[in-house]
User: What shape does this take?
Amino acid sequence: MSEKIFLASTNAGKRAEFAALLAAHGFELGPAIAYPEVAENAADYLGNAALKAEALHEELRRRGIAAMLFADDSGLGIDALAGAPGIRSARYGGRELSWPQRRALILAELAEVPDASRTATFHCALVGIDDAGKRYRGLGETRGRIARGERGEGGFGYDPLFLPEGESRTYAEMSAAEKARTSHRARALQALVATMHR
Ligand code: ITT
Assistant: This one.
């Protein structure tokens, strides 16, 4: 049986990606465990991932579950918006916006920006804590561009806007396996797993 890894995330899109990414590394995604909400107020992705990881670690201990866990903090930095939405990616424009509204806001803000200047980077910071309390981390980045309009039905969040470098399709137009070939999340997991085997 493969080792179960718990994930400190309530984001269904992330959870679905992790299920497949973890399986490729010989792990299995554990069931969602509710943990007290944390204010994601750290200065960077890694800091926010650590806050979520510690909160779930505490909850697992409280329940007497000894297992490895990961926490993911991620976001999109758009060069023409001085790196926004960045660590505020989940709530850019206000928490009350729907994802189509949030993507429309970004497209409106970039309306006058020519193709060559629509560059952006997806970031992912992962923090892991194993059953013995050892901490791990992994960072991943993917460069790309913001499309002129929404394209595709797959993925989640900003995927319909993001064209990874060298690609003419957005992440939302790709299968999960195709996205995993270049994604910031796959890269961060690869980096974290590499440190587990040292
Ligand atoms: P958790 O904290 O519970 O994991 P969250 O959605 O609040 O859920 P973040 O704080 O990490 O997660 O916010 C990152 C946001 O950036 C997230 O809501 C996504 O919409 C977006 N994002 C991150 N990775 C993405 C990806 O691979 N594709 C599209 N959008 C992504």
Observations:
- Residues 9-11, 14, 40, 52, 72-75, 89-90, 155-159, 183, 185 surround inosine 5'-triphosphate (CB under 6 Å).
